Amino acid sequence: MLMMRRACDFVVLAVVLAVSSTEAKIIEFDSCGSIIRPIIGKVLQIDITPCDSEPCVFRVGANVTAKITFIPEETVQDGLIELVAIFSRGERLPWPLKNPFACEDHNLNCPLKPKEPATAIIQTRVIEDIPGSYKLVAQVYMAETKLENYVFCFRIPVQVTY
Protein backbone atom coordinates (compact mmCIF):
# COMPACT_ATOMS: atom_id res chain seq x y z
CA MET A 1 0.00 0.00 0.00
CA LEU A 2 2.87 2.37 0.85
CA MET A 3 4.53 1.60 -2.52
CA MET A 4 1.26 2.38 -4.32
CA ARG A 5 0.90 5.69 -2.45
CA ARG A 6 4.47 6.70 -3.35
CA ALA A 7 3.85 5.77 -6.99
CA CYS A 8 0.71 7.94 -7.00
CA ASP A 9 2.63 10.80 -5.37
CA PHE A 10 5.29 10.50 -8.08
CA VAL A 11 2.67 10.56 -10.85
CA VAL A 12 1.04 13.67 -9.35
CA LEU A 13 4.45 15.39 -9.07
CA ALA A 14 5.29 14.46 -12.68
CA VAL A 15 1.98 15.91 -13.92
CA VAL A 16 2.49 19.11 -11.93
CA LEU A 17 5.98 19.51 -13.36
CA ALA A 18 4.77 18.81 -16.91
CA VAL A 19 1.96 21.36 -16.61
CA SER A 20 4.23 23.98 -15.06
CA SER A 21 6.74 23.57 -17.89
CA THR A 22 4.09 24.74 -20.38
CA GLU A 23 2.93 27.67 -18.28
CA ALA A 24 3.76 31.28 -18.98
CA LYS A 25 7.27 32.56 -18.51
CA ILE A 26 7.92 36.07 -17.29
CA ILE A 27 10.07 37.59 -20.03
CA GLU A 28 12.85 40.15 -19.92
CA PHE A 29 12.07 42.98 -22.35
CA ASP A 30 13.42 46.25 -23.69
CA SER A 31 11.18 49.27 -23.70
CA CYS A 32 11.18 50.94 -27.09
CA GLY A 33 10.91 54.63 -26.46
CA SER A 34 9.87 56.81 -29.32
CA ILE A 35 10.98 60.20 -30.54
CA ILE A 36 7.93 60.28 -32.83
CA ARG A 37 5.22 59.53 -30.26
CA PRO A 38 5.26 59.98 -26.50
CA ILE A 39 4.78 56.86 -24.37
CA ILE A 40 2.00 57.32 -21.81
CA GLY A 41 2.34 54.05 -19.92
CA LYS A 42 4.79 51.64 -18.37
CA VAL A 43 5.01 47.88 -18.87
CA LEU A 44 5.35 46.05 -15.55
CA GLN A 45 5.46 42.43 -16.67
CA ILE A 46 5.13 40.22 -19.75
CA ASP A 47 4.11 36.56 -19.50
CA ILE A 48 4.37 34.43 -22.65
CA THR A 49 2.94 30.97 -23.27
CA PRO A 50 4.46 28.71 -24.51
CA CYS A 51 7.93 29.80 -23.51
CA ASP A 52 10.35 27.98 -21.27
CA SER A 53 13.61 29.74 -22.16
CA GLU A 54 14.87 33.05 -23.44
CA PRO A 55 14.72 33.83 -26.20
CA CYS A 56 11.33 32.16 -26.57
CA VAL A 57 11.32 29.55 -29.33
CA PHE A 58 8.09 29.41 -31.34
CA ARG A 59 7.23 26.79 -33.93
CA VAL A 60 5.53 27.87 -37.15
CA GLY A 61 1.80 27.29 -36.77
CA ALA A 62 1.90 27.38 -32.95
CA ASN A 63 -0.46 29.56 -30.95
CA VAL A 64 1.19 32.10 -28.65
CA THR A 65 -0.40 34.06 -25.80
CA ALA A 66 1.15 37.16 -24.25
CA LYS A 67 -0.18 38.79 -21.08
CA ILE A 68 1.12 42.35 -20.79
CA THR A 69 0.59 44.06 -17.45
CA PHE A 70 1.01 47.82 -17.69
CA ILE A 71 0.00 51.10 -16.07
CA PRO A 72 -1.25 53.96 -18.24
CA GLU A 73 -0.29 57.43 -17.03
CA GLU A 74 -3.32 59.01 -18.73
CA THR A 75 -6.88 57.98 -19.55
CA VAL A 76 -6.93 55.71 -22.60
CA GLN A 77 -10.26 55.74 -24.46
CA ASP A 78 -9.25 53.15 -27.07
CA GLY A 79 -6.24 51.96 -28.99
CA LEU A 80 -4.65 49.66 -31.52
CA ILE A 81 -2.22 46.82 -30.83
CA GLU A 82 0.41 45.91 -33.39
CA LEU A 83 3.10 43.23 -33.54
CA VAL A 84 6.04 43.55 -35.89
CA ALA A 85 8.81 41.01 -36.60
CA ILE A 86 12.15 42.79 -37.02
CA PHE A 87 14.89 40.80 -38.72
CA SER A 88 18.64 41.24 -38.20
CA ARG A 89 19.03 43.36 -41.35
CA GLY A 90 16.22 45.68 -40.29
CA GLU A 91 13.44 44.22 -42.42
CA ARG A 92 10.06 44.60 -40.73
CA LEU A 93 7.15 42.20 -41.21
CA PRO A 94 3.74 42.91 -39.64
CA TRP A 95 2.54 39.99 -37.53
CA PRO A 96 -1.24 39.78 -38.03
CA LEU A 97 -3.68 39.79 -35.13
CA LYS A 98 -7.28 38.63 -35.38
CA ASN A 99 -8.38 41.95 -33.93
CA PRO A 100 -6.01 44.92 -33.61
CA PHE A 101 -8.49 47.00 -31.56
CA ALA A 102 -7.09 47.02 -28.02
CA CYS A 103 -10.44 47.41 -26.28
CA GLU A 104 -12.00 44.43 -28.09
CA ASP A 105 -10.98 40.82 -27.40
CA HIS A 106 -7.83 41.73 -25.42
CA ASN A 107 -9.13 41.70 -21.81
CA LEU A 108 -9.14 45.50 -21.49
CA ASN A 109 -12.06 47.46 -20.05
CA CYS A 110 -11.85 50.83 -21.75
CA PRO A 111 -11.55 53.59 -20.95
CA LEU A 112 -8.40 52.69 -19.02
CA LYS A 113 -7.87 54.84 -15.96
CA PRO A 114 -4.59 56.60 -15.16
CA LYS A 115 -2.34 54.89 -12.60
CA GLU A 116 -4.48 51.71 -12.54
CA PRO A 117 -2.80 48.47 -13.69
CA ALA A 118 -4.32 46.75 -16.71
CA THR A 119 -3.51 43.46 -18.42
CA ALA A 120 -3.79 43.11 -22.18
CA ILE A 121 -3.97 39.56 -23.53
CA ILE A 122 -2.74 39.06 -27.07
CA GLN A 123 -3.21 35.74 -28.83
CA THR A 124 -1.68 35.03 -32.20
CA ARG A 125 -0.48 32.22 -34.40
CA VAL A 126 3.12 32.02 -35.61
CA ILE A 127 2.78 32.80 -39.29
CA GLU A 128 4.30 30.83 -42.14
CA ASP A 129 5.62 34.04 -43.76
CA ILE A 130 8.52 34.05 -41.32
CA PRO A 131 11.33 31.85 -42.66
CA GLY A 132 12.16 28.95 -40.35
CA SER A 133 14.96 28.93 -37.80
CA TYR A 134 15.41 32.69 -37.67
CA LYS A 135 16.17 34.80 -34.67
CA LEU A 136 14.31 38.08 -34.71
CA VAL A 137 12.94 40.78 -32.46
CA ALA A 138 9.21 41.01 -31.82
CA GLN A 139 8.08 44.58 -31.27
CA VAL A 140 4.70 45.01 -29.63
CA TYR A 141 2.96 48.29 -29.07
CA MET A 142 -0.38 49.74 -28.18
CA ALA A 143 -1.15 53.13 -29.69
CA GLU A 144 -3.90 55.28 -28.23
CA THR A 145 -6.03 56.24 -31.22
CA LYS A 146 -7.22 59.74 -30.31
CA LEU A 147 -3.85 61.39 -29.71
CA GLU A 148 -1.80 58.60 -31.31
CA ASN A 149 0.47 58.28 -28.27
CA TYR A 150 2.01 54.91 -27.47
CA VAL A 151 0.47 53.44 -24.33
CA PHE A 152 3.33 50.92 -24.27
CA CYS A 153 6.02 49.66 -26.59
CA PHE A 154 8.49 46.82 -25.98
CA ARG A 155 10.80 44.46 -27.81
CA ILE A 156 11.71 40.86 -27.04
CA PRO A 157 14.05 38.49 -28.86
CA VAL A 158 12.41 35.34 -30.23
CA GLN A 159 13.35 32.43 -32.45
CA VAL A 160 11.03 30.88 -35.03
CA THR A 161 11.54 27.28 -36.10
CA TYR A 162 9.79 24.70 -38.26
UniProtKB/TrEMBL annotation:
Limits of the MD-2-related lipid-recognition domain: 29-158
This protein's name: NPC intracellular cholesterol transporter 2-like
Keyword Oxidoreductase: no
Signal sequence coordinates: 1-24
Family of this protein: Belongs to the NPC2 family.
GO CC annotations on file: extracellular region
The keyword Signal is annotated on this UniProt entry: yes
Xref: InterPro entries: Ig_E-set, ML_dom
Gene: LOC116305582
Ranges in coiled-coil conformation: none
Taxonomic source organism: Actinia tenebrosa
Compartments in which it is found: Secreted
Keyword terms of this UniProt record: Secreted, Signal
SMART domains per record: ML (SM00737)
